Structures are given as structure tokens and as C-alpha cells.
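Q: Could you fold this chain for me?
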Amino acid sequence: MYVEQQVSATLTAPPPTVIADTVAAPLATRLRDCFAGEFDLLDRKLRESLDSDVVLVRSIAEYIVSGGGKRLRPLLVFLSAQALGADPKSGLVIDLAATVELIHTATLLHDDVVDESALRRGRATANAEFGNAASVLVGDFLYSRAFQVMVGTGKMRVLALLSEATNRIAEGEVMQLMALGNLGLTETDYMRVIEAKTAKLFEAAGALGAIAAGAPAASERALAEYARRLGVAFQIADDVLDYRGDAATLGKSLGDDLAEGKLTLPIIITLQRGSEQARTMLRSVLSKPHAVLPAQFVEVMAALETCGALDESLARAECEANAAAAEIAFLPESNAKKWMLELCAYAVRRKA
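A: Sure. Below is the predicted structure, expressed as C-alpha cells.
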């Protein structure tokens, strides 16, 4: 529907020699190769955790695990633990990584039902394949299984951290539901939603790596803040990709947020600073989001570009990524730290 625009902003916080912008393979591929052993152990743990005598539970669980994904949250557990001197292949680290992935997957199952999504990662969502009721119930199963894995670690700090995170994520989902179609939504409101819905589990993943490494409280706070800000950057960039991305690369349709009536940062900025004509058009489209036509999407895209809302949103994501990088300046130099800094650049520049 439009010509994709490249993101050329350069992150300033990490040293230029650390951020490799031109590489032989995408970051996700290189990380998969580097942590292949850890991801194999993670997949084994996930399949073990998702085993059930109930056939439908096993079927949906296998469907989800085989769907892949970036696995960013468990990756943050691996990286944070390794950066602080722990073995990312240790049983504790793998258990903690599996726990955050189980929680994340449960949220996706519930999200897709609430959003009535039919496509994720380029294939049918679990609710489209198995039905809404089965998806919700298996999502509940994943949540409860995650807490069983947590209990198995024997660490009260892990239980406290993840129970608080899970509660906050649920609040974020409710806040997002309440915000649908609310044309008065502010940037502050938007940030509250993504801090809870997305960034909270990122934050927990960073802290869990520090806990696995037996790091002091100050280090745990720094790793948690690094991951939180990275999560914010990822979510804002995601919201931009919903308009500027490539559907084939994203594995979902463009304009999904608009069709669901979600007021993401680019829309909020345009409603605040766009021309009167653009604001009127946008309000009209948002009044009937589920009936958005291709021609209307083109109009919305033009309005977002004209007032600079997409570029400004990416600039906000870049600020968060820079702040994330600054949080881990204290870490000794290591491959793990380099990967963590590169993730800051990737959060803003990625295509999917």
C-alpha cells in the first residue's frame, strides 16, 4: 500500500564499535546460532512442561511451541545471566527462561481471542485453528504450569517477581481494552498500557537473569531497567511497523491495530498535532474501526507521514533504546554485553 521507509537513526549511547549495523545475517539468526544449545534446552523444557494427559492441551501446546517466534524474553534471561557470570545452560536459568516464555505464550493466546486475531507469525492463530474456548483454557493451563515451574526453582524471590509481573500484565490488558476507541487517550495513558502489557515481562526477564547469577540488588535493578526500557522500545517500534512494515515479513496484516480500534502512539500524535482535516478523517475512521477500507488505510498512512507521527514515534523508541544501553554500562565487557547492546539497535531498526 505504500513505499517502505528505512529507519536511519543511529543510536548514540552504545559505543559505535559495539553496534554492528551491517551484518552477514539478521540478528535473530545470529542469536539463534550463538545460543543454539540454550534454545534446544529451552524447547525441551517447554515440551516437558506442556505435557498433559489431555489430548487437546497437548495439541495446542505443540502448535504453539512449533510456531517459533523471536523468544526475546527467554533470550534476555540467558543474556542477563551470562553477562553477570552465570552459565546460561544451567538448570535454573533454563527453568526461569521457560517460565517467562510460558507466561508470554499464555498472554498471546488470550490476546488473540480478545483481539479476534486470525494470523500470527504468518500462520493461523490458535484460536482460529482450535476455537476461542480452547485457546482461553489452554492459556490458563500455561499460566498454572508456569507457576509450577517457578515453585520448582525453590526461590521465593522468583515467585514474588513473576506473580507481580503476571498481575501487572493482566492489568495492562484490561487498560488496553478500556482504551479501545477512546479518542481522548493521551501519550501518558498509552505509556501506562505498554509499560504494563509489554515491558513488565521484559523487565522480569532481565531481573531473573540477575537472580540466577546471584547478583546484588543494584545489579538486578539495572538489568531489570535495561530490559524494561528495551521492551518499551520494542513495543513502540511494533506500533510503527503496523503501518510501515511488510505484511509478509511481519507474518500478519498491516493495519491490524487500526482495525481493532487501538490508539497507538502514531495515532495519538496525529490526533494531537495533525491538520484539522487529518484529525477529522482519523476520528471518522476510528468511529468504525472494524470497517476500515484499504483506501481509508492509505488516507490514515498519509496523515501519519505528513505530520511526522511515525518518525517521532521511532525517535521515542530510540530514546528508550539508548536509555536501556546506558543501564548496562557498568557490566564488564563480554559477548553477552555486546549482544545486549546490539538488541538496543535492533529494537528500533528491525523489519519484523
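A (continued): The radius of gyration is 20 Å.
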